[in-house]
Design a protein that fits this description.
CATH topology of the largest domain: Aspartate Aminotransferase, domain 2
Order of helices and strands: HHEHEHEHEHEEEHHHEHEHEEEH
Strand content: 15-25%
Low-confidence stretches: none
Structural class: alpha/beta
Number of domains: 2
Largest sheet: 7 strands, mixed
CATH superfamily of the largest domain: Type I PLP-dependent aspartate aminotransferase-like (Major domain)
Oligomer: single chain
Helix content: 25-40%
Distance between the termini: 52 Å
CATH class of the largest domain: Alpha Beta
Number of strands: 12
CATH architecture of the largest domain: 3-Layer(aba) Sandwich
Shape: globular
Mean pLDDT: 95
Bound molecules: pyridoxal-5'-phosphate
């Protein structure tokens, strides 16, 4: 399907043709490990399901199109997708990383890849000059998130993508925004990554990861690694992510509308010290977010008076479930300092102990606000 259609149409159709043998409108779950060949090396494009699988191919094509890219690759988790990107590099290579990235990314970089000789520097992405100054002749990749997790900082993707001029690949973890509201490849990034566990899947029922990109050589290298390493998703999981993507644009609209109302409610609440949401005009990244995003997404963080107040609040909500993860239709609440970001205690990411993070779902916003009000009382 061409990229001339609107996002909403592509989200439903891209990469998916009716099944040629039956006309089934939904991509079948090709639950098979191998494919019969007519003669040695004479086959219909599929030999073995680690290498290629039709359900996965539909997902990969869909992801490429909705990110405005040419190629997609699917993995068994978001971490497996990031891991495969890092295998492009060699001992001695240097990687710049936004100082406020997902805790699991920090752990993979510092506790796994540092042992293999990759070197990491942690940079404040809001200062493009500082990022440029941190580039060395060995620097091969800039890895960033925007908005970040859980501090919700905004990086200017187009400004940072200009670093490509210095032969540095720019990779963006687009999990928090989703392509419905932000498309980093169109802003100049080389690689987009998602934990499809989150908004792409959207229903808290699957773990997965994807990459989207444009460059032929980079695609060939990553496709080689995907097959050589083998962290591929099962056909059923690909089906679930494909199904989730069909409603992505509708969900993101409601996630964003609900979150903006909730952010304003929290901003006015006397028990809340500070709200971190890029849709509030007081947010330092508001102007950049307005320029590079369509809507501000469903994630909100806010700071209460004390760590005790934060722990008390997250245990008192009735609709917001106390859980890690994000991006599902149901609202979640958590305490990053003791939950999702406990593994980053020694990292440059200073998660305030009184911080609370919300993944705002698509329930009725009045019910959500009432729930937060009673939990804060
Ligand atoms: C969850 C998440 C990941 C990791 O993805 P998994 O699917 O859990 O492996 C990476 N980046 C961000 C921003 C995430 O939220």
């Amino acid at each position: 399907m061409t990229q001339d259609y609107h996002f909403d149409t592509l989200a439903i159709h891209a990469g998916q043709e009716p099944d040629p043998t039956t006309g089934a409108i939904m991509t079948p779950i090709y639950q098979t490990s191998t494919y019969v060949q007519a003669a040695p090396a004479e086959h219909k494009g599929y030999e073995y399901s680690r290498t290629d699988n039709p359900t996965r191919a539909a997902l990969e094509n869909c992801v490429a199109v909705i990110e405005g890219g040419r190629y997609g690759l699917a993995f068994s988790s978001g971490m497996a997708a990031i891991d495969t990107v890092l295998r492009l590099f060699n001992p001695g290579d240097h990687i710049l990383v936004g100082s406020d990235v997902y805790g699991g990314t920090y752990r993979l970089f510092e506790r796994v890849y540092a042992r293999y000789g990759l070197r990491f520097s942690w940079v404040d992405l809001s200062n493009v000059d500082a990022v440029r100054a941190a580039i060395t002749p060995q620097t091969k990749l800039l890895w960033l998130e925007t908005p970040t997790n859980p501090l919700m900082s905004i990086a200017d993707i187009a400004a940072l993508a200009e670093l490509k001029a210095q032969q540095v690949l720019v990779g963006v973890d687009n999990t928090f925004a989703s392509p419905a509201i932000q498309q980093p490849l169109l802003l100049g990034a080389d690689i987009v990554m998602h934990s499809s566990t989150k908004y792409l899947g959207g229903h808290s029922d699957v773990v997965g990861g994807v990459l989207a990109l444009n460059d032929d050589k980079l695609y060939a290298d990553l496709k080689f690694l995907q097959n050589a390493v083998g962290a591929v998703p099962a056909p059923l999981d690909c089906f679930l992510v494909l199904r989730g993507i069909k409603t992505l644009h509708v969900r993101m609209e409601r996630h964003s509308a609900n979150a903006l109302q909730i952010a304003r409610f929290l901003d006015d609440h006397p028990a809340v010290q500070k709200v971190l949401y890029p849709g509030l005009e007081s947010h330092p990244g508001y102007e950049i977010a307005k320029r590079q995003m369509r809507g501000f997404g469903g994630m909100i963080s806010f700071i209460l008076d004390s760590p005790e107040a934060a722990k008390r609040m997250v245990s008192r909500t009735k609709i917001f479930a106390l859980a890690e993860s994000l991006g599902g239709v149901e609202s979640l609440i958590e305490h990053p300092y003791s939950m999702t970001h406990a593994s980053t205690a020694t990292s440059p990411i200073a998660v305030p102990p009184a911080l609370v993070r919300l993944s705002v779902g698509i329930e009725h916003v009045d019910d959500l606000i009432d729930d937060l009000r009673q939990a804060l009382s």
